[in-house]
Amino acid sequence: MVNNQKKITAIFSALADPTRRRILTRLSDDGEGPVTALAEPFRVSLPAISRHLRVLEKARLIDRKRQGRVHVIRARTEGLKPAQDWMAHFAAGWDFSFGALDELLKEEIKK
């Protein structure tokens, strides 16, 4: 359970930054690409992009493979699953709570 919480924290921490979210959006649109191509639209240095990629990689949201001297980055679709499962767990509870509140309000209106 603790390990799963660390995974979820890493995912949400990685997604908290708008640059990293834009990188993931580009990867989901393009499939995969070299680091230099991913860095083009951003007004940050290549080392800064590399740091963002390391955060995404640590959160297991991307995969990196080397083709010669080029690092090719690809999004991991299964990387978001722990966070999705966590949110689904709470959403089910919220739906139940809102359903119970709705029933209570309907009964109060009838009175």
Q: How does this structure look, described?
A:
This protein has one domain (2-110): Arc Repressor Mutant, subunit A, CATH 1.10.10.10. Strand 2 (62-67) and strand 3 form a beta hairpin. The model has no long low-confidence stretch (mean pLDDT 86). It has helices at residues 2-15, 18-30, 35-39, 46-58, 81-110; strands at residues 32-34, 62-67, 70-75. Strands 1-3-2 form a three-stranded antiparallel β-sheet. Helix 1 (2-15) packs antiparallel against helix 4 (46-58). It is elongated and about 75 Å long. With 111 residues, it is an alpha+beta fold. Helices cover 68% and strands 14% of the residues.
How would you concisely characterize the structure shown here?
Helix content is 68%, strand content 14%. With 111 residues, the chain is an alpha+beta fold. The mean pLDDT is 86.
